[in-house]
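Figure 2 data, in text form.
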Amino acid sequence: MTDRQLLQEREQFALKLSIVGTLFMAILGFGFAYLTNSDAVLLDGVFSLVGFTMSLLTLYVSRLVIRPDDARFHFGYAHFEPLLNVFKSLIILTICAVALVTAINVILTGGRLLVLGPALVYAAIASVGCLAIAFYMRNIAILTQSPLVSVDAKGWMIDGILSLTICLSFLAILLLQDSAIAKYLVYADSGLVAVLVTISLPIPYKILKENLREVLIMAPAGDTAQEIEKLLTEAAGAFQFTNQIVRIQKYGRETYLNVHVVLDKDYDIDTIDTLDNIRTKLDAKMKAYDPQIVMDLIFVGDEKWAG
């Protein structure tokens, strides 16, 4: 088994674990939401149910993106990764918006009492389980460089932080039951939902922003494009080209380079093997920087064809 196949197997195992974990957490969440009358627990269960559905899609896409190009998709399936991640982030943002509106409505209509004993049991189980899976998925994402596993890991981290915050909040509510502010505890559950949603919003927003760049065929964010151009210019210096024009696009785990190399009319080319040798050397340099780089190298004599 090659290293690439081993990494693909680990990616598949992590995504299958995510499917089983989200299904378990969804069942747990809805069951305890019924027992506790808690909107916060219900929100956690909804997150898990959506996560289960998204995990099934993610597993399918993870198998799709490693396929070679075919008659239907001439440039392969890599673009399905950012497309799925955009869809995921939009779903999460929608759930957050609905949960926030519902929580505000409950607060304005007098609040709601909850059953604290079962709520604490649920929150403790959910927080430990979600955070454990989140850290495992994060390690696999770093190892495999899989955007799909990375987004799943962030989803588990959101769920884990929500569950842990719910656990600590329920514990505080339990301790305050006989205090002077006990009459206000009917607002605690919905107030907690509102706070949790507000805190969580930046994470799906960031995922949406990053992956929307890829869906819209924009250049990679940050210094990635500049680093790639600099590395390619340095590597091309050995061949004394007149100029090279680079266009860069990232699709999920793949980075695509479209490079037009401008040659002087007197450039020494004995055979087509000379050009293939240049391609081989430049491709090796770029893959040493990032094995997921796919590069098309096009030689032209007139720079207008590189426009």
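Caption note: The longest helix spans residues 3-36.
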